[in-house]
């Protein structure tokens, strides 16, 4: 049993649902869910030192269709609750989850790029490349990170 099965999580989901359900009908349409998801990403991006790109509109709509179990075109609270569990992260759908996305972005930023930059500088120094002595790790890591993100965006 994880945090997602606790009454606290249910309460949090209820609060999020009520915020999206502007006209208080007890159900939200796909468009309202998309706006809600974007709001969650915005507030997380404002809080954490990493920027995660929100899912595309078409991906969010696919997700709505997937979790609209009775297929009535709207998301009721129980359906929303299941969807929230995936957004927060479950073992089964871990790579779809926000936690995973933040983890991978942070790993890239904090671990992989600085390590790659450090190795690159070590290599350049070992072959006595010009300027290698004065190459700083952090800016090089940022450049690598930008390069990786640029390539990732292209293959999207
Ligand atoms: Ca439904």
Fill in the CATH topology of the largest domain: Recoverin, domain 1
Discrete helix count: 6
Spell the H/E element sequence.
Answer: HEHHEHHH
CATH class wording of the largest domain: Mainly Alpha
Low-confidence stretches: none
Ligand species = calcium ion
Largest sheet: 2 strands, antiparallel
Structural class: mainly alpha
Describe the structure.
By secondary structure, the chain is mostly helical. It folds into two domains: 3-92, Orthogonal Bundle (Recoverin, domain 1), CATH 1.10.238.10; 102-155, no CATH class. The protein has helices at residues 7-20, 30-47, 57-67, 77-88, 98-126, 137-155; strands spanning 27-29, 74-76. Helix 1 (7-20) packs across helix 2 (30-47), helix 1 (7-20) crosses helix 4 (77-88) and helix 2 (30-47) packs across helix 3 (57-67). It starts with 6 loop residues before the first helix and ends with a helix. The mean pLDDT is 82. Bound molecules: calcium ion (CA). The site of calcium ion (CA) has 7 residues, from strand 2. Calcium ion (CA) is lined by residues 68, 70, 72, 74-76, 79.
Concise synopsis of the structure shown:
66% of the residues lie in helices and 4% in strands.
List the helices and strands and how they pair.
Layout: H1 7-20, E1 27-29, H2 30-47, H3 57-67, E2 74-76, H4 77-88, H5 98-126, H6 137-155
Antiparallel strand pairs: 1-2
Helix pairs in contact: 1-2, 1-4, 2-3, 5-6
The structure holds calcium ion.
Residues 68, 70, 72, 74-76, 79 line the site of calcium ion.
């Amino acid at each position: 049993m994880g945090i997602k099965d606790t009454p606290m999580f249910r309460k949090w989901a209820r609060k999020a649902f009520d915020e999206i359900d502007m006209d208080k009908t007890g159900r939200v349409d796909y468009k309202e869910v998309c706006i809600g998801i974007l709001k969650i990403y915005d507030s997380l991006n404002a809080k954490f030192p990493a920027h995660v790109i929100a899912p595309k509109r078409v991906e969010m709509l696919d997700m709505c269709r997937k979790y609209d179990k009775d297929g009535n075109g709207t998301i009721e609270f129980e359906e929303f609750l299941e969807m929230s569990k995936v957004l927060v992260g479950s073992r089964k759908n871990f790579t779809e989850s926000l936690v995973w996305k933040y983890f991978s972005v942070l790993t890239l930023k904090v671990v992989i790029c600085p390590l790659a930059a450090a190795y690159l500088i070590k290599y350049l120094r070992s072959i006595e490349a010009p300027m290698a002595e004065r190459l700083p790790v952090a800016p090089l890591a940022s450049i690598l990170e930008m390069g990786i993100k640029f390539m990732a965006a292209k293959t999207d």
